[in-house]
Amino acid sequence: MPWNESGGSRRNGGSPHxxxxxxxxxxxxxxxxxxxxxxxxxxxxxxxxxxxxxFAAIAAFFAFSFRVxxxxxxxxxxxxxxxxxxxxxxxxxxxxxxDEVRLPKVTRQNIIEIGMRTGLTARGASGAVTNVREESLxxxxxxxxxxxxxxxxxxxxxxxxxxxxxxxxxxxxxxVAESAMREVVGQSDIQPLLTxxxxxxxxxxxxLMQDVLNQYGAGVHVDQVQLQKVDPPSQVIDAFxxxxxAATDKxxxxxxxxxxxxxxxxxxxxxxxxILQGARAYREQTVAEATGxxxxxxxxYEQYKKAPEVTRTRMYLETMERVLGGSEKIIIDTKQGQxxxxxxxxxxxxxxxxxKK
Length: 357
Known about the structure:
With about 350 residues, the protein is an alpha+beta fold. The protein contains ten helices and 15 strands. It is rod-shaped, with a radius of gyration of 59 Å.
């Protein structure tokens, strides 16, 4: 219905004014648009059609294409079933809901923290450390409580398995990591965990995690398990440190004792060998001297049997020579009333030169 049939309104000081017809306004606007377009009214329909075609092409391009970033892998699903994987770049697909694309980041290294929260990322940025006691407190094999904080580095190995075999991949990896660490700690004593078994524990947890995730078909590869802190609970940490210091002193003293043993035992063995060699030499010397004395006695005895008196006199004189050879001599002359005559040895007699002086 035309607007002029519905009544009018007063403008310009209350003078009556009728509203123009709507159809008339549309016609006037279309006429002015045709006049403004280059080429006159004959080209307006073609231009509108071209613009519509361009807009439709642009809309179709955005509806049928998708982009895969360098750290991603495009998994195309058709009616919910994976049909292909696309590398980084620009690709095409059928519109939703026929085709759907998932873009997991397959080259990025993911980090999961157990027992603490630091805001650590793959680039190394970190914030304040917050302990999570319900994750970090574990029971060792010798029934001691140990506080363990560790970090797991992992990445996507199979995008299809990662997307469709497990519902919450990150949660699954976190729970598997915590379970594996509790199992390894539960099979170990606390002392090796606190001292020298860190690398062995990390390797055992990594292997156990990988085996469990492979059984799940998670499509995840565990790059590294890194222990951040392995301590007893804070309430007894001072006592454990004293025990650890005592164990260190014990090991040091044992090493010193072993070093002393390694030094003194060869010396003792060398001294014993020297004594044995000396005893053997003394035995051989004594036996040789006895053998010589025996041979000498036998030879003297043979001569003695030939001339007993002469041999006996010679032996007497030789014996007296050995006995009296180094002593002072006093000669007693029995013919002169047992007077003492001094004995002057020939080597003590004054020479002629001394007499002339």
